[in-house]
Amino acid sequence: MTAGATDAPRRLRFALVAHDDKKAEMTEWVARHVERLSRCDLVATGTTGARVAQRCPQLAPLRLKSGPLGGDQQIGAMIAEGRIDALFFFVDPLSPHPHDVDVKALMRVALVYDVPLALSVATAEFVIAGMIAGPISPGGPE
C-alpha cells in the first residue's frame, strides 16, 4: 500500500427474499429504508428483486433466479462464501410452500454461518438499525 492510501470500507451486501404473500410487505419495507439501503449492495431472488427494482429503481438489486428455481440455493452459496452480510427473508408461515426444503436449507445456512436473519418486518427493523446508522424512516411499525 502506498503512503497515505486508505482502503475504502467494503459495502455491506444484503440478500432480499420474500414469499409471494409477503412481497408487497418487503417492497414497502425497502422503500421506507431506501436511503440506508442505497449505501449497500443488494441481492434478491427473481420476483422479489423485480418488485424491489420497480418500486425503488435507484437500488437496482442483483437479481438471481426465482426461489423455487434455485435462487434460494444461490443466496445460500453466497452466504457460505462469506458474500452476504444479512438475510432479509420475509416468510409467510400460513401458506404451504412446495419448495419448503429449500427455504429451510437457506435459513439453516444463515444460522450455520452466523449471518443476521430477519424473517419479519419487526426483526428487519432491528437488523438494519444495528448494521446501518442513519435516521429511521417515518412510517415504520408502531
H and E order: EHHEHEHEHEH
Which radius of gyration do the C-alpha atoms yield? 15 Å
CA-CA gap between termini: 48 Å
The total strand number stands at 5
Shape: globular
| Percent in helix | 40-55%
Note poorly predicted spans: 135-142
Output mean pLDDT: 89
What is the strand and helix layout of this fold?
Layout: E1 13-18, H1 23-32, H2 34-37, E2 41-44, H3 46-55, E3 62-63, H4 71-80, E4 86-90, H5 100-112, E5 117-118, H6 121-131
Parallel strand pairs: 1-2, 1-4, 2-3, 4-5
Written description of the protein model:
The chain is an alpha/beta fold. Residues 135-142 have low confidence and may be disordered. β4 (86-90), α5 and β5 form a beta-alpha-beta unit. It has a single domain, classed as Methylglyoxal synthase-like domain (Rossmann fold). It has helices at 23-32, 34-37, 46-55, 71-80, 100-112, 121-131, and strands at residues 13-18, 41-44, 62-63, 86-90, 117-118. α1 (23-32) crosses α3 (46-55). A five-stranded parallel sheet has the order 3-2-1-4-5, sandwiched between helices.
